[in-house]
Amino acid sequence: MALRCFPIWVCPQTAYYHYPLLGFDTKRRRICLWECSSSASQRAITAVGGDVPYGRELKKPSDEMGLTQERPQLETFHRDLSMLPKPLTANSLTSSAWDDSKVRISFQGIPGAYSETAALKAYPNCETVPCDQFETAFQAVELWLVDKAVLPIENSVGGSIHRNYDLLLRHRLHIAQEVHLPVNHCLLGVPGVQKEDIKCVLSHPQALDQCVNSLNELGIQRVSAKDTATAAQTVSSSGERSIGAVASVRAANIYGLDILAQNIQDDANNVTRFLILARDPMIPRTDRPYKTSIVFSLEEGPGVLFKALAVFALRNINLSKIESRPQRGRPLRVVDGSNNGCAKYFDYLFYIDFEASMAETCAQHALGHLQEFTSFIRILGCYPMDLVS
Fold first, then answer.
1. Going by DSSP bridges, is the β-strand pair 46-47/16-19 parallel, antiparallel, or unpaired?
2. Does the pLDDT at position 27 exceed 90?
3. 236: how many CB neighbours lie within 10 A of its CB?
4. Is the dihedral of CA 201, 207, 208, 213 positive or negative?
5. Which range is least confidently modeled, 67-81, 167-181, 301-315?
6. Better-scored residue on pLDDT, 159 or 52
């Protein structure tokens, strides 16, 4: 029994669909229905014809196509069925979920940056894609150029990276994982120099601030650079023996620099927390400790922030992080006071991380209760906690 293809028209005139992300318009094509035939000599064919203008008379089909004379002519090709993709099995689905050799992760900076190291910690066999800006790393995921992005969000010494909190709200990516990366700032120099030869050191301003005591002891002048890996690249390119860089061990290996000193940060317990972002959210589970990140704004009223936070305390849910950011849409509002003059207030967004999975009933009830006090709420992600640094 063979199959025969009949074209049908969806509407009496050509329609256009617009795909803004793909950047082109697509005409509506003829939709073909498969029909069974008792003729064993006929072969299954797939119609991929061009458009036939409305009102034009259909031509008679060619005999070599194997269709009856009542059918309209179609441009066709014969598909090799062996080339069609094979259905996934349970085994292949399980293995592909853990196969990080196919994962492409964007990060801000150049090879050797701490963000790249965090991506490799999460996915040791992944392909990393450097981007010049954090925003570019987000856009690379949104445009399907990469699978995920890695973003530093806070440091145990330097605090929160406020710019990146704003980007979390501006883009529609989901937090899929967190990575805690211990910071090992190294003093790097061109091959053959001693640390006493270094008179000037380049690095990111935050890295320089985290190594103030060590650099002061060596009497080294500090100069800001775009990031730590760029500093290492600059020193390697210059070949100057009196210029060093504060960067990672990985940056030293990539750019051929000697490690003159390791762990020169003032705080030995210096850890940066990174977020792995994806287009689709993770499915929350309860098989291991999970963390949920949300952002919300509150209605006006006395004690409303206390009430909002109490919804977690009442259910014994621990808050691991709270961050407030002024709303960009309406950063300042003026309210008349009861006495002379007026009071000025900022409208804030509150970012909260709490230690519970959205699959748990207590978390669902807490968010339902929280909605009573909020004018806006959004779940940024529910993801496994990183318990190993």
1. unpaired
2. no
3. 19
4. negative
5. 67-81
6. 159
Classified as helix, coil or strand, 300 is coil
> One of 107, 274, 312, 354 is an active-site residue; which one?
274
pLDDT at 12: 43
**How do 271-278 and 174-182 pair as beta strands?**
antiparallel
pLDDT score recorded for residue 344:
60
Q: How confident is the model at residue 326 (pLDDT cuts 50, 70, 90)?
A: confident
Rounded Cα distance between 141 and 78, Å, is: 36
Which spans in the chain are helix H? 90-97, 114-122, 134-142, 162-170, 205-209, 212-218, 228-238, 249-255, 304-313, 361-370
- Could you say which DSSP state residue 334 is in? E
CA-based Rg of the chain, rounded to a whole angstrom? 30
Q: What are the Cα distances from residue 368, in Å, to 293, 364, 374?
A: 15, 6, 10
Q: Is 196 in contact with 238 (CB distance < 8 Å)?
A: no
Q: Over the range 137-156, which residues count as b (16 or more CB within 10 Å of their CB) and which as e?
A: bbbbbeeeebbbbbbbbbbe
Q: Are 222 and 246 in contact (CB under 8 A)?
A: no
Which residue in 128, 228, 230, 272 is the catalytic one?
272
- In contact, 214 and 262? CB cutoff 8 Å: no
Q: What's the farthest any 2 CA atoms get from each other in the chain? A: 95
Which pLDDT band holds residue 146 (cuts at 50, 70, 90)?
very high
Integer Cα distance of 370 and 376 in angstroms: 10
What is the average per-residue pLDDT within 377-387? 94
- Token look-up 């008179």 returns 199
**For the chain, first and last CA: distance in Å?**
63
CA 370 to the chain's CA centroid: 27
Q: Is 117 a catalytic residue?
A: no
Q: Respond yes or no: is residue 272 known to be catalytic.
A: yes
> Which tokens sit at 251?
């940056």
351 contacts 322 by C-beta, under 8 angstroms: yes
| CA torsion through residues 282, 285, 288, 293, sign | positive
Count CB neighbours of 375 within 10 A.
Answer: 11
Model-level pTM? 0.72
What are the pLDDT digits (tens) for 252-286?
999 999 999 999 999 988 999 999 999 999 999 99
